[in-house]
Specification:
Helix content of chain B: 40-55%
Radius of gyration of chain A: 15 Å
Distance between the termini of chain A: 37 Å
Largest sheet of chain B: 8 strands, mixed
Oligomer: heterodimer
Order of helices and strands of chain A: HHH
Largest sheet of chain A: none
Number of helices of chain B: 20
Number of helices of chain A: 3
Number of strands of chain A: 0
Number of strands of chain B: 17
Distance between the termini of chain B: 63 Å
Shape of chain A: rod-shaped
Structural class of chain B: alpha/beta
Chain lengths: ~40, ~600
């Protein structure tokens, strides 16, 4: 069981309640995503 | 890959896989997803795919949705960056509005980690980004292993398909529950992709439905293992001795010049040119699938070709590139043959001999050795300098996964020994199943050179373990020290100095570990994983960071113990043993 828990490092409580990044962070990520897609990385 | 038949139904989990790579990566992904789909039939998989692979992925009947990245649209977008961002936002909005139980990044790029962080998900696997500062980290242990080991080019012996499958199935097991476990069956199939009856026809290519057929899967010139002359030699050998076969060359547009050269070579003296068809650069992805599914064998130097043959159940002969980590990238099917030559590409005659050996397995029932076969075929001189392996998918009770069994005696090199140890460590870290130390090593394959190197390594492994134990202790001290502080935000100058000093000691330990690695590159695994594990610490306060760091060093110390056990075991195997009385036969003396 110990080894299984290591596989998914997010705990279940954390992950099941996880939500998307907030709006500002999302916009920042979209900008990075655009650069990465156009830059081929 | 063998799987247990499912009998337990789970409520449908929605899974989004980010696979934005080329054909080889997309096909590898399908193999891993198929395994999960088999064990968790109610799971629904969607994929974000590259423009190259999207149309092929849409032909997999059990893939719910394929979202194609709008790269061309973005590149051709006139006007400002704002318009590009609008387009990207418009493309991603429907995806973010879905409820995803699992988002799996199997692309491991800057772009995919952004997507993983933007799309709301219950659980994430692969690369993602921290909510706090959007820095990149791995969401799970297997991803850390991929980043710290495989992407660093460090040899290990677990196939990438097995890693992805295990990563996914473990997540299902933890978050959904056990799958049923009864029986074994193969997940490959000629009908893996959904093709219409018209699409299954070969007539447009002039191929005969009555002939036996071999595919040559060429790779682009910058990736190719073989020159056109090698392919021509192989084709000549096959066609001269096997008149019942026709040969089809397959590959992308970049392979057209190679195929043209092969034809030119054949036409100069070969009578069998009419049985050679070059379809390089002429087929769509679906036509490629159709033709390969109707071949009896494929000779492949391309990873994508190996993967597709594995999915379709077409037997393959893999022509290994020098230095290729085929234990993690080779064909994933029973009975594939792999030919490699140290420091160069394999000779066509050796590849041909491996094929005839594989094709005649039904006849000799695997009782004849490849050495005998080469001798009987007049190919003995092509045996030396090559190594030959046959793939076998292990039953799940033996740990599952694919292994490549040597067909000729292969002495154990340090690189291969190291790959076995690292594979063992990964299983100990991430799986419930741990193999016996050195269980796959026999005395006969150990060389004096290996023993000398292992003896040198044995002296250093003690140092490594002590450094890691010291690191565990220092990180633990940081944790307990910070725990005793009254405030998490303010600390006294004295405390600050003390914590800084502890940090310096940790840094020294890391430098010492790096120095050992510079002397013994076999331990690079430890320093590389050290960096990944520490990068992926999630906590934002010193107390928790100390605790997390301590766990990381403990994990590495466990790995160093496994290294030590392997070194001791291997050196022990090579030790001279006393002859047992029962094994001695005394010849009667006659005069």
């Amino acid at each position: 069981m110990e080894s299984e828990l290591r596989v998914v490092t997010l705990s279940e409580d954390e992950t099941l309640n996880a939500s998307s990044a907030d709006d500002a962070a999302r916009e920042a990520l979209l900008a990075v995503l655009l650069d990465a897609l156009l830059g081929g990385s | 890959m063998t799987l247990s038949r499912p009998s337990v139904k789970h409520s449908g989990q929605t899974c989004l896989v980010l696979q934005m790579g080329g054909y080889a990566e997309a096909l590898q992904t399908l193999m891993a997803l198929r395994a999960a789909k088999h064990l968790y039939p109610s799971a629904e998989f969607s994929i974000i795919a590259s423009e190259q692979t999207a149309s092929l992925l849409k032909r997999v009947p059990w893939i719910r949705e394929v979202y194609q990245l709008p790269i061309s649209n973005l590149q051709s977008m006139p006007g400002s960056r704002v318009h590009c961002l609008d387009l990207l936002r418009e493309w991603i909005t429907p995806i973010t509005h879905m409820r995803w139980d699992l988002v799996i990044d199997w692309t491991f790029t800057e772009a995919s980690s952004c997507l993983s962080a933007i799309i709301p998900a219950g659980v994430r696997l692969g690369k993602t980004r921290r909510d706090s500062d959007q820095t990149v980290l791995c969401a799970d242990g297997w991803s850390q292993y991929l980043v710290g080991v495989i992407f660093q080019g460090i040899g290990q012996n677990i196939h990438l398909t097995d890693i992805l499958t295990t990563q996914l199935l473990t997540a299902f097991q933890v978050h959904v529950g056990d799958s049923a476990d009864a029986g074994e069956c193969s997940v490959t199939s000629k009908s893996f992709f959904d093709l219409s009856s018209e699409e299954r026809s070969l007539s447009q290519w002039g191929l005969s439905p009555m002939k036996r057929r071999i595919a040559l899967q060429l790779d682009s010139p910058d990736q190719a293992t073989w020159a056109a002359e090698d392919w021509a030699d192989l084709a000549s050998l096959i066609m001269a001795r096997h008149p019942d076969y026709e040969i089809v060359a397959l590959g992308g547009v970049a392979t057209i010049p190679i195929a043209d050269q092969v034809i030119a070579e054949l036409s100069s003296g070969d009578q069998c040119r009419e049985r050679f068809y070059s379809l390089c650069g002429k087929t769509s992805s679906i036509q490629w699938v159709n033709i390969l599914s109707q071949c009896h064998w494929v000779f492949s130097e391309s990873r994508a070709g190996d993967q597709l043959a594995s999915l379709l159940g077409t037997r393959s002969i893999a022509i290994a590139k020098d230095g290729m980590h085929w234990m993690e990238l080779g064909p994933y099917a029973n009975g594939s043959l792999l030919v490699e030559a140290a420091g160069r590409s394999p000779d066509p005659e050796a590849v041909y001999g491996a094929w005839t050996y594989g094709a005649m397995e039904w006849f000799h029932r695997k009782r004849a050795s490849i050495r005998e076969h080469f001798s009987q075929s007049g190919l003995s001189k092509w045996l030396s300098g090559h190594t030959f392996s046959r793939s076998r998918i292990r039953p799940s009770q033996d740990g599952g996964g694919i292994i490549y069994e040597p067909l000729t005696e292969q002495k154990l090199t340090l690189e291969r020994w190291n790959a076995m140890v690292i594979g063992h460590v990964a299983r100990a870290w991430y799986c419930g199943w741990v193999p016996v130390v050195g269980g796959e090593v026999s005395r006969s394959v150990i060389t004096p050179d290996l023993i000398i190197k292992l003896r040198e390594m044995r002296e250093s492994i003690d140092v490594v373990r002590k450094v890691l134990l010291e690191s565990v202790s220092i990180a633990g001290t940081i944790e307990s020290k910070c725990k005793r502080m009254k405030s998490r935000n303010v600390m006294s100058l004295e405390d600050n100095k003390e914590i800084q000093a502890l940090g310096e000691r940790l840094k020294s330990c890391e430098e010492l570990l790096d120095r050992v690695v510079s002397v013994h590159p076999a331990y690079k695994f430890l320093s590389s994983m050290n960096k990944v594990l520490l990068n992926d610490l999630r906590s934002e306060n010193l107390t928790d960071m100390g605790r997390e760091a301590s766990e990381c060093y403990r994990q590495l110390e466990e790995a160093s113990r496994i290294f030590q056990q392997w070194i001791d075991h291997t050196i022990g195997l090579a030790r001279p043993t006393a002859v047992q009385d029962g094994n001695v036969f005394l010849f009667p003396m006659t005069h």
